[in-house]
Amino acid sequence: MKSLKIVITLLVVAVFASCNNKRERQVQYMPDMYVSVPYDANGASSAGDVPVNRLPVAGTVSKNGVVAYDIPDSNEGYEKAKAELKNPLKNDDKNLANGKKMYGIYCAVCHGTKGDGNGILMQREKFLGIPNYKDRDITEGSIYHVLMYGKNMMGSHSSQLTYKERWQVVQYVQKLRSELKK
């Protein structure tokens, strides 16, 4: 009998609580599920003013091995990279072998296996005017910069290749260029 009185009392309280204004939410279970905190994906601060999506401090390397590339995507940046940027990797067979492999996957389809600009897309006339490495005034830095940002019809390959792989491709392109000049 006592438990019946408790159940009836709870039922009456629930009925009165539900008779409030129906246009306004009274109680919200897990409010974070309904009202999410918006974040600016382009580097604003998140909740608690914690910075998100920021570049690491100049000269540092993040934990996952990503190295910040702070040369801008401009003609001045291209010239700066061309003049100043040097390959940090040792020029050895292991780096050249992986550079050749990555070149075959990402570059040969346009630039050709020899670097002569006669890849399969050029042969099928999908893209015309693909440069020959022999004819270009390029350096390690300019090749790396173009891999990072792209140039003219060529898009960026920075999301497909890691930092090390980009430098390995640079080594392999330099090797192809020297073979074309013979």
TrEMBL record:
The organism of origin for this protein: Tenacibaculum jejuense
Entries under Gene3D superfamilies matching the protein: Cytochrome c-like domain
Protein name from the UniProt record: Cytochrome c1
Residues making up the signal peptide according to the UniProt record: 1-17
Protein's UniProt keywords contain Transport: no
Entries under InterPro entries matching the protein: Cyt_c-like_dom, Cyt_c-like_dom_sf
Entry keyword Transmembrane: no
Top-level division of the source organism's lineage: Bacteria
MF term (GO), any: metal ion binding
One of the Pfam families matching this protein, by short name: Cytochrome_CBB3
Domain Cytochrome c: 94-177
Keywords: Heme, Iron, Metal-binding, Signal
PROSITE patterns in UniProt: CYTC (PS51007), PROKAR_LIPOPROTEIN (PS51257)
